[in-house]
Amino acid sequence: MTIETPAGPPTARQAPSERTHHGDTVTDEYAWLMNKEDPATIAYLEAENAWTDAATAHLAELREKVFQEIKGRTQETDLSVPSRKGGYWYYTRTEEGKQYGIHCRVPVRPGETDPPMGDARPGEEVLLDGNLLAEGKDFFALGTFDVSPDGNWLAYSTDFAGDERFTLRVKDLRSGEVLADEIPDTFYGSAWSADGSMLFYITVDEAWRPDRVHRHVIGRPAADDVVVHQETDERFWVGVELTRSEKFIVIDAQSKITSEVRVIPADTPDVEPILIAERRQGVEYQIEHHGHRFLILHNRDAEDFALAYTSVDAPGEWVELIPHQPGTRLESVDAFARHIVISLRRDGLTGLRVMCDGSTDTYDMEFPEPLYSVGLSGNPEYDTASVRITYTSLVTPDSVYDVDLVTRTMTLRKRKPVLGGYDPADYEQFREWAHAPDGTRVPISIVARKGVARDGSAPAVIYGYGSYEHSIDPYFSIARLSLLDRGVVFAVAHVRGGGEMGRRWYEDGKMLAKRNTFTDFVACAEALIRNRWTSADRLVARGGSAGGLLMGAVANLAPETFAGILAEVPFVDPLTSILDPSLPLTVTEWEEWGNPLESAEVYAYMKSYSPYENVAKLPYSKILAVTSLNDTRVLYHEPAKWIARLRATVPEGQFLLKTEMGAGHAGPSGRYDSWREEAFNLAWVLDTIGAAGA
């Protein structure tokens, strides 16, 4: 069969459709692309894919080379550091040539305190093999993986489409039998009762909002399951989990700015949930069980959060434990039998603070590099005097340490192998600052190979996100080495809307301050150019999801600042989506972006920055938009419409759309498929910035 190469990019037909809000009528000529069931929509997406294949055919050799570099630097047969829970060590291993992880455990030997490392040892029990589950499937993802407290049962859920609707199953780990219990259309999260007889899980409403917590009795039909809690406020998501102490099942309801938590004693799982504190608009809190008390991390009169506690027996008054300290953002709290560990950030860096039980004395863990990321990792055991942490930086591969909370000693258990002679001393990382138009100093993290010229000639990539208080902290990437080793400078712009500099940093980049996210990013790009890290004709911007909105906005705001823009699953038609409460996630998003249905001011503000609304006859850089047909978070039609309008408005522009026809928000699911996807993206980036031949 001969496949004909397209002579040029496809032209999307125009079928004008009008919407009117607040007296403003808008014509959307590509609204028809929202119909996923229309064969014309699929045909158009496939035509775009064919054009993208043709337009990038000259990069095939480079793509393969980059893929082989990623693969060659990765230890394909590998083992995670085992975590102890009860009488077992739990771990995941990978095997060369296989796409997915294999989840295993081995019994703890008498007197064994250190995790067993190296090859799998006798007695290994395979709990779940993702490769077997994924056989014959184009996509595979796990939602829940949850072993019961007694170690006898495994609850797991699978998604074979990428739409994040999971089917929940239960496996008897004693016999290896998968029970007849099968529950479709569940969400992430689960919790076991203390005796393992009952399983709590979550389902979603028609708008893909997790709104109900169910209780399932093992061995009984799903039709008998009881709805334990239903959240009727469409702004709120629900979650469920078992505390580390295994004493309480926690049901939390969270909007973007408000929380409410209930608990159920795990040894009496059929009682009504107990409310910890009623929701109060604008007050967020999370709880952690610690002996006779619930620890409460909250922002009540504490913008950067404080830590308090209340009685387990009679939740009520909050007693202060760590007062609010402006500039030190407390992000989470983890309780252990004799210690509390607080995850925080200060001065743009993450940190860990330890508090001994029965004492207000605390100490902060210290780390050697000027730029890094650190956080707790797993830690399923409650009665322990040590914790596991993960540490990384722009030059240090992911590292797993066990920390003795009493002696404060850190033991390196494993550093992610990077094959091929990687030496962190060959690279340098820097922190620089840009000045936003309003005078705000915006941090930039930079990594480059030593010796890269600072004369403006180096190619560069700048990455950004800037929403939901999500921080893009310094991190190591094997794939990124394919850029750095070709002389490319890599930078992260820590723009407002993220959480890098505390809660105020987030507040100043959302709602009616959202434009700060975009102008911060442009200021960071201009700082890289001004400080001679790169030049505008050798700089690519990259971002995904809400960071894809950032990409679309800066494409309109500063088209001549970038040689190219890589927008992954980009939220580029936000106003249309946020105006439609029937779409997945819309109502829950109003506290992040504003409600343009009710507010003319919000409507006008969102319209002023929406990438799709503001496509114009501009000197756009090259643009590659990557999306997935089954994405339920940012629907495929947003980038499809955006590229269609860009091409119609600027016919001479170089705009590409690539749609994964069988994946979701995170793209391809298998690791080799993901590496090939990244190789495709990096080859396009290298070609755009003139580094393809380096």
Automatic annotation (TrEMBL):
Transmembrane segment boundaries: none
Gene3D superfamilies, per the entry: alpha/beta hydrolase, Prolyl oligopeptidase, N-terminal domain
Domain of life, per lineage: Bacteria
Region (Disordered): 1-24
Keyword Protease appears in the UniProt entry: yes
SUPFAM superfamilies linked: alpha/beta-Hydrolases, Peptidase/esterase 'gauge' domain
Signal peptide: none
Pfam families associated with the record: Peptidase_S9, Peptidase_S9_N
UniProt keyword Kinase, yes or no: no
Residue ranges occupied by any Peptidase S9 prolyl oligopeptidase catalytic domain in the UniProt entry: 475-690
Span of domain Peptidase S9A N-terminal: 9-414
Entry keyword set: Hydrolase, Protease, Serine protease
Family: Belongs to the peptidase S9A family.
Protein name: S9 family peptidase
Organism: Actinoplanes oblitus
